[in-house]
Amino acid sequence: MLIATIGIVFYIKQRGTLSWAVAVFFLINLYILASWWSWWFGGGFSNRAFIDSYGLMAFPLAAFIDQFRRNQVVRGTLIGLLFVLTCFGFFQAQQYRNMAIFWGWMNKEAYWETFLKLRPTNKYWAILYESDVIKARKGIYTTIPIYDQKITRDALIDEVEVRFLTDSMLPRKLQMESETSGKTFDQLLLDSANSYIDKGKATDEYRYLRIQYLKSEMYYFDSWHQDILRQANQEGLSFEDMATKEAVRIFETYSPKYLYPLPE
Q: Buried b vs exposed e over 101-140: b needs ≥16 C-beta within 10 Å?
């Protein structure tokens, strides 16, 4: 599209039928879309609001290529470059599906961290920052981290142990093993919980803790609290129900990074 944009100049020089119409539309459309407070356009791959312009931008793109019709080497190189960039676009679409390119709030560091990688890395999540939507609506653009380590292994162990103790068979099994192995019941329970976590089976417990943590943040941060309260009033829900609904939505959106790896 950068090449197509440059091609507007050649399209005007060639006195194309729609040349001035394309130029005026491009400038007005660019101004209007750039005026929205949400520069990430609510989430999507690249600047999705410009996709509707692709059909019209095909004319200046063709004009750019036609400008070199007498120089077969340059024209062939240009077409080859466009082919490579198109393939690269398909590759990045696959990255987007795998969340190696995030649907919103991408930054330069995160982009280069996953450049030519089909799947996100742990570092990628650590350097990806979310825009503060409340402030962005007022034209103040600041970011907040969307990655943290608030859920500790000790907290996860406690949650797993609670689940084990409610199991009808496991406590009896551990008690019998305690009588023969010389280990205390508490030590066997702890060992079982650690083994359960190490095998990556504690995702339900981690999900519960993460959602509870998100809800606690909604109570703590005043701007977030007011936003949840406003949504609750609009949907006719209690604050608790709205906070739970929003926490679940956030967790499910970021679940690939929240679930793997579990805290060490």
A: bbebbbeeebbebbeeeeebeeebbbebbbbbbeebeeee
| Local confidence band at 57 (pLDDT 50, 70, 90 cut-offs) | very high
The answer to whether residues 65 and 75 touch, using CB atoms and an 8 Å cutoff, is yes
Residue 101's nearest CA partner among 77, 129, 120, 75 is 120
Residue 137, domain member (yes or no): no
Number of domains within the chain: 2
* Residue 81: count of CB within 10 angstroms of its CB: 11
pTM as predicted: 0.56
Give the mean pLDDT of the chain. Answer: 85
Q: Which of 77, 97, 117 is the last residue before a domain boundary?
A: 97
Regarding whether 243 and 160 lie in a shared domain, the answer is yes
Residue 44 identity (one-letter amino acid) = G
Give residue 226's domain range: 153-259
Cβ 187 vs Cβ 165: under 8 Å = no
Please indicate, yes or no, if residue 178 is contained in any of the structural domains: yes
The C-alpha atoms of residue 183 and residue 168 are separated, in whole angstroms, by 21
Do the domain assignments include residue 71? yes
Least confident piece of the model among 62-66, 67-71, 114-118, 217-221: 217-221
Give residue 254's pLDDT. Answer: 66
| Alpha helical stretches, state H, 98-221 | 108-113, 122-126, 133-136, 153-165, 170-181, 185-198, 203-220
Count of CB atoms within 10 A of residue 201's CB? 12
